[in-house]
Amino acid sequence: MRINFASLRRRLEAGALAAGTLWVVAVTAGSDTAASAASALKEALPMGILRWELGDLWTEDQLSPATVMTLGESPLLSAARPAVAELQRQEESSGASAGEDEVSTVPVEETPLEAPEAADNGVTARTLVPTDPSSYTVVGRAYISNSTDYQLSIPALQENFAAELTPEEPQILILHTHGSEAYTPAGGTEVVWSGDHRTTDSRYNVVKVGDVMAEVFAEAGISVLHDRTLYDYPSSYNEAYDKSLAAIQSYLAQYPSIQFILDIHRDAIADAQGNQYKVVSTIDGVGTAAQMTLVMGSDGSGLTHPNWMENLKLAVALQQDILTEYPTLMRPILLRNSRYNQHATVGSLLVEVGAAGNSPEEATLAGRLFAERMVEVLEARSK
User: Fold this and answer.
1) How many angstroms separate the Cα of 279 from the Cα of each of 53, 113, 130, 137?
2) pTM
3) Which residue, 219, 284, 332, 364, is most buried by CB atoms nearer than 10 A?
4) Spatial distance between the Cα atoms of 108 and 192, rounded to a whole number of angstroms
5) Tally of CB atoms within 10 A around 184
6) Mean predicted confidence (pLDDT) in 327-354
């Protein structure tokens, strides 16, 4: 059979022209002037081209290209696309937005104590501890730096937190909104940096800390998922929160048994001259671990987050337990207006493990100690 390629090409061109015409009509349908029609086309054209390049012409669910890219990274996430779209519609109907501010953990009143110089990477070490209690809400050993307009009730913060372990699997999700956040290895170590104190090499970034935490939970018999995706590479910080939220929604749709979500980050602390230093806790018989900070969100930004107090109660319970065992391992809890995707469950935490100046070994030791104590707290809560 002979194929008339010229005729076939004309038919394809005619079909493409017809499809393009229909698309233009759909985009400009609500425009009552030529100027408004042109404006609608200007806004819609880049998004349409991006969807075409992604091979995603399924626009009924109105998921953003960033979300589509995230879901397309695995068959598991793709399978949950309808559920993610429904969750997103529910959030949009309540006026929610996924964007978040960059985490910044400048201490309110912390005194740097001299710490032994760590020979492993040569970065100046400090141990930061809270000083003036008047700058904090103090609940036992837990100090809370409150940046919101809410007045915190100490008796309420001492109540049991809502989330608890159940027999279903999995129970814990570990992920990294800013997975390329890296540490400072020993001098002479070859690292391919993807940005300022950032790398995609999981031997030196916060993903390694997540690996260690997952091992601890698994060894304790608690089922855990560890998502090692780098949501901030090459995305910006705000795009990373959009992408990690899409992943969280997908996991929850696939595994409604998930009770706890740990978003593992690290801090960046510099002196007045811009020199990085690291924060450490020297523990007798254990070693030198990176100090950690729990950064907790609220609905102070206007985004939907009705159960933020439950997350904060969990943070306070963990802080109390860890500081009883390791008095300088935790820096004060930071309560912020942003929600950091913590509205997803009543057992969500953002854990900053050390700072850019800490060594990977200090960070992984801290992650191990945190996970071990969290196991104890969760098991005690579930009895």
Assistant:
1) 45, 10, 13, 22
2) 0.74
3) 332
4) 34
5) 25
6) 98
Q: In terms of domains, do 242 and 368 share one? A: yes
Q: Which residues of 204-214 are buried (b: 16+ CB within 10 A; e: fewer)?
A: bbbbbbbbbbb
Residues 229-244 as b or e (16 or more Cβ within 10 Å = b): bbbbbebeeebbbbbb
Residues 146 and 53 in one domain: no
Structure tokens at 154: 């100490």
Contact 123, 106 (CB under 8 A): no
Count the neighbouring beta carbons within 10 Å of the beta carbon of residue 340.
Answer: 25
Burial label, 22 (beta-carbon count in 10 A; 0-12, 13-18, 19+): exposed
Looking at the structure, tell me whether residues 253 and 345 fall in a common domain.
yes
Strand partners, 113: 127
For 212, the token pair is 């260690």
Tens digit of each residue's pLDDT (9 = 90 or more) over 251-302: 999 999 999 999 999 999 998 888 899 999 999 999 999 999 999 999 999 9
Which 3-state string (H, E, C) describes 268-293? CCECCCCCECEEEEEECCCEEEECEE
| Percent of all residues in the chain with a pLDDT value above 90, rounded to a whole number | 63
Which domain covers residue 34, as residue numbers? 1-57
Residue type, 71: L
Number of domains, the chain: 2
What integer pLDDT is reported at residue 48 of this predicted model? 56
Per-residue pLDDT tens digits for 161-189: 999 999 999 999 999 999 999 999 999 99
**How do 172-175 and 224-226 pair as beta strands?**
parallel
295 within 8 A of 308, measured Cβ to Cβ: no
| Main-chain phi, psi angles of 261, to 5 degrees | -125, 125
What Cα–Cα distance (Å) separates residue 305 from each residue in 88, 94, 97, 310, 372? 14, 11, 11, 11, 28
- Whether the per-residue pLDDT at 225 is higher than 70: the answer is yes
162: domain CATH number is 3.40.630.40
What is the distance between the alpha carbons of residues 217 and 258, in angstroms, rounded to a whole number? Answer: 14
- Buried/exposed 58-73: b ≥16 CB within 10 Å, e otherwise: eeeeebbebbbbbbee
- Per the domain annotation, does 76 fall within a domain? no
Instruction: Kindly state the percentage of the chain with pLDDT values over 70.
Output: 69
